Backbone:
């Protein structure tokens, strides 16, 4: 089977490609350029090409920055301005990874698209991964169900520790297997507030109110908070935790 693998330069996508190749499939890799963070893509592309050389597979570089900016980045900013808390990874998976990348795979004649997500497909439905500590079904829950017919998730039935251990068996993959992993949003360097400050003011002190509408404290600006947060604002005379119930921008 001719399979395109979404590759990031990390251990999961690298082992995804290796496992499929070992199973006898014709594998090629694809790295997606999604944003313009300085130095980010250069370092990752070098890792992907190194893995590609080790596996002896062709690597595609797909520039989706305009699509990502329109479909993920801008909605991320506008959601916070609107008093909401966005999930950019869920948007990216639906519109970019299992959207634009899937379109590219089909156009190039691939029979399947594979990713290193920890998630399973059973009876045409999305299922949690075997390794619940790494399960990513939540981030894929918003995808077009029709996309699942074209998808492969080779790591869904595996445990992360076993994936990393398998990678360490190969000299060419041992370094990425030992690299620290980031769970942050890919285009955020420090905090999301720094991203928002490039587009709008976030320091807008305001009033904290209780359910009855009584003014009981102050906050630093509504974009700093999300439902359920209990820190970063003041409730006068409070002796127990208070939690954000709603946000009125």
Residues:
């Amino acid at each position: 089977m001719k399979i395109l693998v979404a590759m990031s330069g990390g251990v999961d996508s690298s082992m995804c490609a290796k496992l499929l190749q070992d199973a006898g499939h014709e594998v090629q890799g694809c790295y997606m350029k999604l944003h313009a963070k300085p130095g980010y893509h250069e370092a990752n592309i070098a890792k992907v090409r190194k893995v590609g050389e080790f596996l002896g597979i062709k690597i595609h570089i797909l520039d989706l920055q305009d699509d990502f900016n329109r479909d993920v980045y801008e909605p991320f900013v506008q959601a916070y301005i609107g008093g909401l808390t966005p999930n950019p990874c869920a948007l990216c998976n639906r519109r970019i990874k299992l959207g634009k990348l899937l379109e590219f795979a089909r156009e190039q004649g691939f029979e399947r698209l594979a990713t290193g997500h920890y998630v399973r497909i059973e009876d045409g439905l999305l299922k949690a991964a075997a390794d619940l500590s790494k399960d990513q079904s939540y981030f894929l829950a918003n995808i077009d169900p029709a996309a699942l017919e074209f998808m492969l998730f080779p790591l869904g039935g595996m445990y992360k520790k076993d994936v990393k251990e398998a990678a360490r068996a190969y000299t060419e993959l041992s370094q990425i297997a030992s690299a620290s992993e980031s769970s942050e949003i890919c285009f955020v360097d420090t905090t999301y507030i720094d991203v928002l400050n490039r587009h709008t003011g976030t320091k807008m002190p305001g009033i904290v109110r209780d359910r009855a509408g009584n003014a009981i404290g102050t906050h630093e600006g509504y974009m700093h908070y999300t439902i359920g947060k209990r820190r970063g604002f003041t409730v006068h005379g409070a002796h127990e935790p208070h939690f954000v119930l709603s946000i009125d921008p």
